[in-house]
Specification:
With 384 residues, this protein is an all-alpha fold. Helices cover 63% and strands 0% of the residues. Helix 1 crosses helix 2, helix 2 packs across helix 6 and helix 13 runs antiparallel to helix 14.
Length: 384
């Protein structure tokens, strides 16, 4: 679907007129001012993220309108000769300052009045550098919005289907960026491997199956191949499940067949690794009944495998999650209690993770769940 031109306007959530003015100023500064370090881009991104779904969608409409008006990028110039030793390279070009009238038009182009914004873009037609800045800054803000969202959600350690669904508010442009980052993360991202896995999970949440193309599947095959060769098991399994979701089940089926053979191994350690990974495979495919079967097997085998003890609470907790998603709440509560007991002896489960995990939503209204949380984490603080 092509978007040639949509009414460009930006709305933000605000409690007071002063708050709205402050938010709009943060966005205007990021788009218009010559100096826009990462802190300025981040401040603008935070304001976009504070908007509701309509506001985020309108932000994307603004970016599309600017992109339609901005000059198209030219082919990259030939590479420059290296600077000889002992000579200084030329300093980076300074961002241009624009006349007041141009700056006013730039600010109007991102305003919340659709007609005024459209007219402002028309006035900027003779100012390609100004349009180029708006285009580049808008893309930088969008990129920062996605990085902040992915990082925030990944830091909870919770994993569930639909975890990144809100990113869909940013349109197909978001899925394209996330898939790109799964191959090559932004340079400033810490823990790049974890970020790549989170990006791929986000792609699965926001890219409609019917929009996946042969190029999408080729990229996923590339990701899976590199993950396998580098020993990144988490990314490899996530890529195999994504390929299955987007119409290429060959890798998934091959992995599943090998793991099922491993689950019959005479070696307990190999059996544990195979059953646990097989459970995760089915969980990520959102086949929760089958995930329950294999997580239970992993819990049973793990009790006799010393290497599994530190992660045993997590395996038991994942069994509880799959049981909730299979509408087997009584059994899920039993496994949740067992996970909390096991974690208390080895590696405790984090309350923040459980609070963020939507897999547990089916239990939150049950008094037994509240009693478990209070027993292991104390009474919740009274709201201020």
């Amino acid at each position: 679907m092509a978007h040639l031109f949509l009414s460009p306007f930006l709305t933000f959530v605000a409690c007071t007129a002063a708050a709205l003015a402050q938010q709009n100023e943060a966005v205007r500064k990021a788009f218009v001012d010559a100096d826009a370090p990462r802190s300025v881009i981040t401040a603008a991104a935070e304001q976009v993220l504070a908007a509701d779904a309509v506001g985020r969608a309108r932000f994307v409409a603004t970016l599309r309108a600017i992109a339609a008006a901005a000059p198209k990028a030219e082919a990259a110039p030939p590479a420059k000769e290296p600077v000889p030793a002992g000579k200084d390279a030329s300093p980076p070009a300074k961002a241009p300052e624009f006349a007041d009238a141009v700056r006013e038009a730039m600010a109007a182009a991102i305003a919340d009045d659709g007609e005024a914004a459209k007219a402002a873009l028309a006035r900027l037609a003779p100012e390609p550098a100004a349009l180029q800045r708006l285009d580049e800054r808008g893309k930088a803000i969008l990129s920062r919005c996605l990085v902040l969202t992915v990082r925030k959600k990944a830091e909870t350690n919770a994993v569930f289907a639909g975890q990144y669904a809100e990113i869909a508010d940013f349109g197909p442009e978001a899925a394209d960026l996330l898939l790109k980052w799964t191959v090559t993360p932004p340079r400033d991202v810490a823990r790049a491997d974890e970020f790549r896995v989170a990006c791929l999970r986000a792609v699965r949440d926001v890219l409609p199956v019917e929009r996946a193309t042969d190029a999408t599947r080729a990229t996923l095959r590339e990701i899976a191949g590199k993950a396998q060769s580098s020993g990144n098991q988490n990314l490899f399994i996530t890529a195999a499940c994504a390929m299955h979701q987007f119409g290429d089940p060959v890798l998934f089926d091959g992995v599943k067949e090998r793991l099922e053979k491993g689950a019959s191994s005479e070696t307990a350690t190999e059996r544990y690794m195979a059953t646990n990974t097989l459970a995760d495979l089915h969980y990520q495919l959102r086949n929760y009944e089958e995930a329950v079967k294999w997580f239970k097997a992993a819990v049973e085998v793990g009790e006799s495998v010393p290497e599994a003890q530190q992660g045993q609470a997590t395996t038991i907790y994942n069994t509880a999650c799959s049981l909730v998603l299979s509408k087997r709440n009584d059994e899920a509560l039993q496994y949740l209690e067992k996970a909390l007991q096991t974690g208390a002896k080895t590696r405790p489960l984090g309350k923040a993770m459980i609070d963020a995990d939507h897999d547990m939503n089916g239990l939150r209204g049950d008094p037994r769940f509240a009693e478990l949380m209070e027993r292991y984490f104390g009474k919740p603080s009274a709201p201020k």
